[in-house]
Design brief:
Blueprint: H1 11-21, H2 33-43, H3 48-61, H4 65-70, H5 73-80, H6 87-102, H7 109-113, H8 120-131, H9 140-149, H10 160-168, H11 174-178, H12 180-193, H13 212-216, E1 232-242, E2 248-252, E3 263-264, H14 277-281, E4 292-293, E5 298-301, E6 305-315, E7 326-328, H15 330-336, H16 339-356
Parallel strand pairs: 1-6
Antiparallel strand pairs: 2-3, 2-7, 4-6, 5-6
Helix pairs in contact: 1-12, 2-3, 2-8, 8-12, 9-10, 9-12
């Protein structure tokens, strides 16, 4: 462990700043652990600007933990569509059922961590904000603030073993201990608005006179991050079948893994090389149709890899959906499908004018663009 300053910046100064400059958010001021929990889960890997309207919409549809627990998974998945990182929605649904089963939210960090999908950060955030537990949740903003005020030079992610106990020391101060929820949110706001990743506004910081990194002029270089590993690349082909009414043939992905339980346009597994047409056709949901390749590719980035996808399209006679599939109206599908699948629909939308204007006849495959 490196030697760190023995004196911390005063928590009271940060709280005074927060009282004057706190950001206005729909979940601020809430004491209901359900509302706080939903906001914290949504904010993981998603911007505040994107979460705001979706948070209000989600609570309008599932206003209580009971409403969420008793809702069918399909409704929860549809409401989450577009927010990304869909394991969060699965865990949110499972945890709501667990909370309902036990008669309410646990009021300790340890109890909260026993719920599905709740890790150290979320447990600490809900405990501090909803229940006044004197603990410091450590997210990316807090990592950055603590790294700078204490000039922690070890690279992430290894530095987390230093940052977490260092952040916990703030709760030894009376001001932070008296207002743990506000202090946690003050740290979030400081990192998001002042102590930003690039060009921090040190002149406006309530801790500028107590920041070791600013004193040494190294704030722009902290926290140190280990070199990124190369992202993976995957390829796939998907099949968009539509009946005369314009409904789309969809299916649910397996309950675990990427996009687990979400609706998808059926397709091949994502592999390290583009599948050739013959191999791809083995995964067509309705063999024997006149599938045609639409121009272009859709690309989607996950945290660890990019996926490039082609789209095949076919018209299907009216009839029941095959086993394991379902028909869905086009408007409903565009709402329920995750972002990755909507990018495939954009290929179909772009191809529609060409088809209407006398493009390739059905049954003939179009050449792939690019």
């Amino acid at each position: 462990m490196p030697d760190l300053p023995s004196t911390l910046p005063p928590s009271g100064a940060l709280l005074d700043w927060y009282d004057r400059h706190r950001r206005s958010m729909g979940w601020r001021g809430a004491s209901d652990p359900y509302r706080i929990w939903v906001s914290e889960v949504m904010l993981q890997q998603t911007t505040v600007a994107a979460v705001g309207p979706r948070y209000e919409r989600f609570l309008a549809r599932f206003p209580t933990v009971r409403a969420l627990a008793e809702a069918p998974w399909e409704e929860v998945a549809a409401e989450w569509a577009g927010l990304g990182y869909y394991a969060r929605a699965r865990n949110l649904h499972a945890a709501a059922k667990a909370v309902l089963g036990r008669g309410g939210f646990p009021e300790t960090e340890a109890g909260l961590r026993d719920l599905p999908g709740i890790g150290a950060y979320t447990a600490a955030a809900v405990a501090a904000i909803a229940f006044g537990v004197p603990t410091v949740p450590v997210d990316g903003n807090v990592e950055r603030v603590v790294s700078r005020v204490l000039a922690i030079r070890e690279a992430l992610p290894g530095a987390r073993r230093i940052i977490a106990p260092a952040a916990a020391r703030f709760m030894e101060q009376g001001a932070a201990r008296g207002r743990p929820g506000d202090f946690a949110q003050a740290l979030f706001d400081l990192g998001a608005t002042i102590c930003t990743p690039r060009r921090p506004a040190c002149a406006l910081c309530p801790w500028r006179g107590d920041c070791e990194a600013q004193r040494s002029g190294i704030q722009d270089g902290l926290p140190v991050k280990a070199p990124k590993t190369a992202r993976g690349q995957r390829y796939g082909t998907h099949f968009l079948a539509r009946d005369p009414a314009g409904r789309m043939l969809l299916r649910h992905r397996p309950p675990t893994g990427l996009l687990g339980g979400m609706l998808e346009i059926p397709g091949t597994p994502w592999t390290g090389a583009p599948p050739d047409d013959d191999a791809a056709m083995e995964h067509a949901p309705l063999p024997g149709l006149a599938w045609r390749a639409l121009p272009g590719t859709a690309r989607h980035g996950f945290t660890h890899m990019d996926v490039d996808m082609r789209l095949m399209a076919a018209e299907v006679p009216a009839g029941p959906a095959p086993e394991g599939f379902l028909w869905m109206e086009a408007a409903a599908a565009r709402v329920a499908l995750p972002t990755l699948m909507r990018r495939l629909l954009a290929l179909a939308d772009a191809a529609a004018p060409a088809a209407a204007g006398g493009g390739s006849a059905p049954g003939r495959r179009r050449p792939r663009a690019g």
